Structures
1.
Amino acid sequence: AQSVTQLGSHVSVSEGALVLLRCNYSSSVPPYLFWYVQYPNQGLQLLLKYTTGATLVKGINGFEAEFKKSETSFHLTKPSAHMSDAAEYFCAVSIGGYQKVTFGTGTKLQVIP
Amino acid sequence: EPEVTQTPSHQVTQMGQEVILRCVPISNHLYFYWYRQILGQKVEFLVSFYNNEISEKSEIFDDQFSVERPDGSNFTLKIRSTKLEDSAMYFCASRATPNTGELFFGEGSRLTVL
């Protein structure tokens, strides 16, 4: 069975500061890993994904994440937070391309002007 | 850009009533899913569907729930007799092939059971 753990249900950063949202996964086989963003009253939008290959993946809106097998982590970063980044972020894992995607509990990002 | 569409966006129903939530997945996608998100909580897997049958379902997906792909475009979730605890946002998602990995989500259908 696969699972993800997101550390911190709420994270606050100042505008222009580094964003770091933490995600650790558990999987018995090489995982597919995802970050999704959810704006208020909207659906889930894919930010980025890791399936195979390069461990540093870049996504939309300047976000990136690095797959670290030794640490079972897939933390999301952005060098400089923007007010529009305020949203809820979900880390997710799938153990195969056709298997269900399992979501973490989410991290709400607040950006302080 | 192709997208997953869901209707209705919001439905209010009385406890015990049947509800059907509708989804039109992206046209060339083969794998379909329903998830739900109770207000303020995590996104939970309900069911996956491939080749006209359920491929996996969660413990939440009990006998009150059913899914159907009645034609080549729609994918529906039926709740036979709604309970208060079914109040949630229901998301439909689709996936093209196993190798692409990611799910594409609709905007959700908010179900309120009174």
Note: DSSP finds no helices and eleven strands in chain A.
2.
Amino acid sequence: AQSVTQPDIHITVSEGASLELRCNYSYGATPYLFWYVQSPGQGLQLLLKYFSGDTLVQGIKGFEAEFKRSQSSFNLRKPSVHWSDAAEYFCAVGAGVGKSTFGDGTTLTVKP
Amino acid sequence: DTAVSQTPKYLVTQMGNDKSIKCEQNLGHDTMYWYKQDSKKFLKIMFSYNNKELIINETVPNRFSPKSPDKAHLNLHINSLELGDSAVYFCASSQVPSGGPQETQYFGPGTRLLVL
């Protein structure tokens, strides 16, 4: 069965600083990987996804993620964080129709 | 137009009651889901349906029963509510792209359930 680990429960960065959120997955076949963001009191919204092809994927709001098969990782990055980026971030792996597993999430706090 | 909608947004009820949460999507998607998010923000899938057929039924108590009257709706009925059922419940939908096994999920705004 697939699994997703987000090692960092909580990360605090200063506004304008760079950001990297870690995600490690376990899956026996080609993974389908996603990053979602959840703003306070809201549902989840897709930031970006990786299915195949270029291992560096661009998403919305200036985020990008890099798929590294050798490390079973799909880390999310942003070069300069804005206060509005404070949210909960979830990494997910897909394993077929209707079958997705989410990590436990990373809470991002942005200091002024 | 809201893509995935849930009603009610808030639900406060007593232990032992039976309640339902409704979900509707207007995206034309084939697959719908229910997730439970606890107080620690952990998100766990409960059920998924594809074309009204159950695909996933995780280790959820049988007090929880999903009902999909058509592809656009997936309702969640909960019998004999318990304190531990207090959480935020999210509905989501997705569409398998042609030739592809995986899909992006679109989430509703959540239903905040509090059992007293």
Note: The mean pLDDT of chain A is 92.
